[in-house]
Structures are given as structure tokens and as C-alpha cells.
């Protein structure tokens, strides 16, 4: 404890000395490791330019330090200055042409610049000097994958996993690549052989769970993750993924329990709290859901999923004004996500804010929302304002986007009957009946008079007679 305290004190003094030197435009000598500590300090604060300035100052004192050059490459890459990063990497390579870190960093940089052949060349150059070959194989696979070359990508991902079964990035990329190639199911034996050979391999069961998850076989996936946690009760990723599998199975109580166990095995994250909130929300325990969404926001105040989650819970509790506050915040953080806009539109509509609701639904359409009910809610606002023809136009656009959603067709039928266009009503009624015959009962409930209902019944009767 005393050593740690002294080191912290020494670093604080060194940082003050460095910043005073920069401020006064003077020159002082620092040990190389002190420069590196100052670089890491600025990077933790996301002060990339300051970190780059430290690199430059340090290189004036240590002009042949490839370690400093690699820091410089890493930072320049982070800020998107690939050309400058490559120049520094090439200078470092001239000084030490057989250094793994330099060769690997240059390969990664060339891959980011989409210079495939050169990237592959440098990864292969780095391979003989690698302590962990799995990372090099992973990057070879990722580079091939980025260019749509699935066969070599699959082979390199497999090599990465064979060298390091715990390389989870390689597992996820391999499964995604196999699914893209259409042969994930055929490759299940690759994952099954591991647990057949070693039934007590927690990582093997986890990897098999990932494969089943990508095949949408969530029950088998949950079982595999559960085996992983029984072998290793501190396997946080397995608990978390098991929660996801249960969510997909709509087993929300079990999902909630799995997510809570994730918190017992790793430091809390906004993501885990958000998933706990989502599970509680599905269980209609909105207080618990909101509490966990708020915990997520304490960790990351701009976590859009948590902002949306609170807004959605408040909306479901009919607290529309409060819901709008959080939903607007979610759209501020992630304005391209249509779901946020459509839910905001529903909340504004519930508050009677017609103009704001229409603006939100228009934003949702702009970002290609995948919820067909948004179109119904949007059209309903125009219908309530006496603009039924505009409502029909919106619903027809929705029907084009979701041609298999009978609800849209039936609502178009209703609005056409209201404006007296029987021909169009019959056209969309026929389409709706083909998609979902039983749903026409909801259409009958839409009308209040028997006269209107009789029109629907007569058309349906005529269509049924045609089939005989």
C-alpha cells in the first residue's frame, strides 16, 4: 500500500513537472517509463492530442525508442490519421525489422486502410515472433472476412480458436462467418468435438452455446451456457449470454436471474444493468426496470438504451410527460434509431401533441423503422384530424414496407369505407383476408354501426362464395 501511494505521488509530481515544462516552453529530462505513464494518463482522459504531444517531446529525448513510436502509431490510428501512423510504423520497422509489435501493428494499420495484400503479408511476417499466435490468426481471418473472402477467414478463425479456445472474438467472428456462408449447422461438429474431448471445458460449452445462439436454437444455447457456468461459476460471459438466450425464449424471469448472476461475477456495467432493466420491464415490474436503467445511466449518462428504457416504462405506466423527457434524450444521443422516434411519437400522440407526434413519426419513417404498428399510429393522427385520405396514403406506404402485415391492410379497408371508396376497400380486404383471415374480426370491432359492419360482412361473404 505504501509503495503504491509513493508511486502515485511520484507520478503526480512528474505530471506537474511535465505540464509546467510545456507551459513555460522549457526543457527537462524524464525517464522513458515516466513519459509512457503520462501518455497513458492522457489517453485515459481521451486527450489524444496531448498524448501525441508527449510522444513528440519524448522522441526528442529518445529518438530511437520504438516503444514511443508504437504509442504514436496507436494514437494516430485512433484519431484516423492512418497516413501519419504508417510513416511512423515504417520508421520503427527500419530500426527493428524483426519486432513482433511493430510488424503486427503495421499489419493492423494496413488492414484498417483496406490494403489487404500488404496487411496479410505483415501478419504473416509477425507470426514467427508471436507469443500468442491466436491473435495473429484472428487478424488474418478478420482481414479476409472484411473483403468477403469467407473460406480463408473461416480457416484462420478456426486456427485462432485451436491455439486459444478462450479467444471469444474469434468464436463470434467464426460463427458469424459460417452463418454468412450458410454452413454453420454443418460446422457444429467443430464446436462439439471440444466438449466431447473435454466435457469439463467451460469455454468449450460457451463456444457451442454461441453457435446454437446464431442458429436461433435458444434452448440448446441456454443449456450449453448453463453447463459452462456449472463448471465455472465465475464465467460472467456465460451468465450474460444465458440471459440473452432466455430473453429470446421469452423466459424473462430466468433471464433476469442470469443477468443478476452476471453482476456477481464481474464489475457492473451499463450494458448489464440495461439488460436487467429490460427483463424486469417484460415482467411488468417497471419500478425495478427503471431502477436498473438509472444505475446504467450513473455509469454512462449517455447510454441511449437506458434513456429509452426509462421512457418506455414511464409510457407504459401512462406517465406520458415524463416519458417524453427521456425519449427525447434517447433521440438526442442516437437520432438514427427509428424505434426511439416512433415511441416518442406514440407518447406525444397520447399527450395530444399532434404536431410533435407527426414530426416524430416522420423521423421514424426516415430511418426505416421496422415496426409496422408505427404506421398505424401515425395514420391515426391524420384520421383523428379529419385528414383520412392522408392517413390512407401513409398506411399504403406502410403496406409497401410490410406487405405481409394484415393489420395495415385492414386499417386501409376501414379508412376507405369511411370516405366511401368501396372499390379500394374491397381490394385491400381481399389482401388482408389472404394474409390473416381471422384478423377481420378486429376490423369489425373498429366500426360502431351495424350498417358499416354489414358492408364488411357482405364483402367477406361474397369472397367466401367465390372460393366454393
UniProtKB/TrEMBL annotation:
GO terms for biological process: receptor-mediated virion attachment to host cell. GO terms for cellular component: cell outer membrane. It holds the Pfam family TPR_19. The keyword Nucleus does not apply. Residues 1-28 form a coiled coil. PROSITE patterns: TPR (PS50005), TPR_REGION (PS50293). TPR repeats lie at residues 100-133, 134-167, 202-235, 236-269, 270-303, 304-337. The keyword Nucleus does not apply. Keywords: Coiled coil, Repeat, TPR repeat. InterPro entries: TPR-like_helical_dom_sf, TPR_rpt, Ycf3. PANTHER family: TETRATRICOPEPTIDE REPEAT PROTEIN 6, UDP-N-ACETYLGLUCOSAMINE--PEPTIDE N-ACETYLGLUCOSAMINYLTRANSFERASE SPINDLY-RELATED. This is Tfp pilus assembly protein PilF. The lineage of its organism: Bacteria, Pseudomonadati, Bacteroidota, Cytophagia, Cytophagales.
Amino acid at each position: 500500500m505504501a509503495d503504491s501511494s509513493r508511486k502515485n505521488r511520484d507520478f503526480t509530481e512528474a505530471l506537474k513537472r511535465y505540464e509546467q515544462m510545456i507551459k513555460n516552453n522549457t526543457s527537462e529530462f524524464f525517464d522513458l517509463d515516466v513519459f509512457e505513464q503520462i501518455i497513458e494518463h492522457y489517453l485515459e482522459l481521451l486527450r489524444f492530442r496531448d498524448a501525441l504531444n508527449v510522444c513528440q517531446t519524448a522522441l526528442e529525448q529518445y529518438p530511437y525508442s520504438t516503444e514511443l513510436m508504437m504509442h504514436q502509431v496507436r494514437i494516430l490510428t485512433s484519431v484516423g490519421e492512418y497516413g501519419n501512423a504508417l510513416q511512423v510504423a515504417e520508421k520503427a520497422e527500419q530500426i527493428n525489422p524483426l519486432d513482433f509489435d511493430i510488424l503486427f501493428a503495421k499489419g493492423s494499420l494496413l488492414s484498417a486502410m483496406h490494403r489487404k495484400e500488404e496487411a496479410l503479408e505483415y501478419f504473416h511476417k509477425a507470426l514467427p515472433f508471436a507469443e500468442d499466435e491466436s491473435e495473429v490468426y484472428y487478424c488474418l481471418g478478420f482481414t479476409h472476412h472484411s473483403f468477403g473472402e469467407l473460406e480463408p477467414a473461416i480457416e484462420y478463425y478456426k486456427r485462432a480458436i485451436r491455439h486459444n479456445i478462450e479467444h471469444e472474438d474469434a468464436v463470434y467472428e467464426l460463427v458469424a462467418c459460417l452463418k454468412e456462408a450458410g454452413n454453420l449447422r454443418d460446422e457444429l461438429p467443430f464446436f462439439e468435438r471440444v466438449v466431447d474431448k473435454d466435457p469439463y471445458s467451460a469455454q468449450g460449452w460457451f463456444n457451442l452455446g454461441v453457435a446454437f445462439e446464431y442458429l436461433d436454437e435458444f434452448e440448446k444455447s441456454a443449456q450449453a451456457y448453463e453447463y459452462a457456468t456449472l463448471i465455472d461459476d465465475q464465467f460472467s460471459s456465460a451468465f450474460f449470454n444465458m440471459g440473452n438466450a432466455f430473453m429470446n425464449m421469452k423466459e424473462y424471469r430466468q433471464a433476469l436471474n442470469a443477468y443478476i448472476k452476471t453482476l456477481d461475477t464481474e464489475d457492473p456495467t451499463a450494458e448489464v444493468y440495461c439488460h436487467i432493466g429490460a427483463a424486469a420491464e417484460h415482467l411488468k415490474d417497471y419500478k425495478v426496470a427503471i431502477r436498473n436503467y438509472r444505475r446504467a445511466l450513473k455509469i454512462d449518462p449517455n447510454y441511449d438504451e437506458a434513456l429509452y428504457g426509462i421512457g418506455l416504462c414511464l409510457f407504459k405506466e401512462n406517465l406520458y410527460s415524463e416519458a417524453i423527457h427521456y425519449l427525447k434524450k434517447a433521440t438526442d444521443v442516437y437520432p438514427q434509431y427509428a424505434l426511439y422516434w416512433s415511441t416518442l411519437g406514440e407518447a406525444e400522440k397520447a399527450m395530444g401533441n399532434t404536431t410533435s407526434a407527426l414530426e416524430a413519426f416522420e423521423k421514424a419513417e426516415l430511418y426505416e423503422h421496422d415496426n409496422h404498428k408505427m404506421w398505424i399510429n401515425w395514420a391515426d393522427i391524420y384520421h383523428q384530424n379529419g385528414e383520412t385520405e392522408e392517413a390512407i396514403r401513409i398506411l399504403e406506404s406502410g403496406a409497401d414496407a410490410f406487405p405481409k402485415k394484415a393489420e395495415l391492410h385492414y386499417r386501409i379497408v376501414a379508412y376507405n369505407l369511411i370516405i366511401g371508396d368501396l372499390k379500394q376497400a374491397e381490394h385491400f380486404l381481399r389482401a388482408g383476408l389472404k394474409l390473416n383471415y381471422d384478423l377481420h374480426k378486429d376490423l369489425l370491432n373498429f366500426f360502431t354501426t351495424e350498417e358499416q359492419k354489414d358492408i364488411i360482412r357482405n364483402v367477406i361473404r361474397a369472397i367466401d362464395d367465390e372460393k366454393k
